[in-house]
Amino acid sequence: MRKYLIGIATILLVLVLVFIVRIGRNEPKTKVIEKVKVQTEKTYEEIKKTENIVFLGDSIIDWYPIEEVFGDLPIIRSGIAGYETDDILNNMDDMVYKYNPTKVFILIGTNDLKRDEDKTKITADKIIEIINNIKAKRPMTKIYFQSIYPVNRDEGAAEERYNYEIQEVNKIVEKYCNKNDVTYIDMYDELTDSNGNFKETLTKDGLHPNDLGYARISQVLLKYIYEKE
After folding, report:
1. How many Cα atoms occupy the beta-carbon half-sphere of 137 within 13 Å?
2. Per the domain annotation, does 187 fall within a domain?
3. Is 13 within 8 Å of 221 (Cβ atoms)?
4. Tens digits of per-residue pLDDT, 189-225?
């Protein structure tokens, strides 16, 4: 029954996204997000009583319209704009452990890539350290890592970030995840255009998702949110 409901919700979300694309990228946020919410709220009761989910990360999480998209599902926004991996590591108690989560969805690393040193290896190592800390302190928690999102330097906010470096970090972390019972979510490929950049229709500034981008991301995350542990 659970798989059936998830399948129905996913199909409906796809139809909603297709409709949103047709009406254009500039539709007001409330109208876009409401269309997604309507299609997901019918399955809320199935998960509300059993899960405690943390979305962990930086500004992309900080600005995620979680309530608008997922309603009163037990999802905690634990992201702070500007945060790097070290900021997460220094605040694990407040950002993760105190919530005693059943699931943690991690999205961090893009801000680290503005460093000058050997940033790809350092960033990947720090992400893996975050994951290992959660595994050690909360061994029953299911961990998901969203690959670092692509950027679009033509849109203005990507600054010193480059997609080839993002892909290098993602590759290292994916290899680790596959060997250590961590679910790797390839969001990078979900958001890129034919040139390997963040799709213009899905980003507001080349770095952060717009409303349609968050809708697409939510569609991908939905099956993991409802996934049995």
Report:
1. 16
2. yes
3. no
4. 999 999 999 999 999 999 999 999 999 999 999 889 9
Reported as a single tens digit per residue, the pLDDT across 133-150 is 999 999 999 999 999 999
Query: Which two tokens mark 95?
Result: 């950002």
Contact predicate 207/163, CB 8 Å: no
Interatomic CA distance for residues 203 and 20, integer angstroms:
14
In a domain, 179, yes or no: yes
CATH code for position 85: 3.40.50.1110
Q: Please check whether residue 1 lies inside any domain of the structure.
A: no
- Number of structural domains (the chain) is 1
Tens digit of pLDDT for each residue in 43-60?
A: 566 677 788 999 999 999
Closest by Cα among 144, 166, 151 to 57: 144
Q: Cα(101)–Cα(10) distance, rounded to whole angstroms?
A: 24
What's the pTM value of the predicted model, to 2 decimals?
A: 0.82
What are the backbone dihedrals phi and psi of residue 105, each rounded to the nearest 5 degrees, phi first?
-105, 115
Helices 2-23 and 29-40: crossing angle, nearest 10°?
160
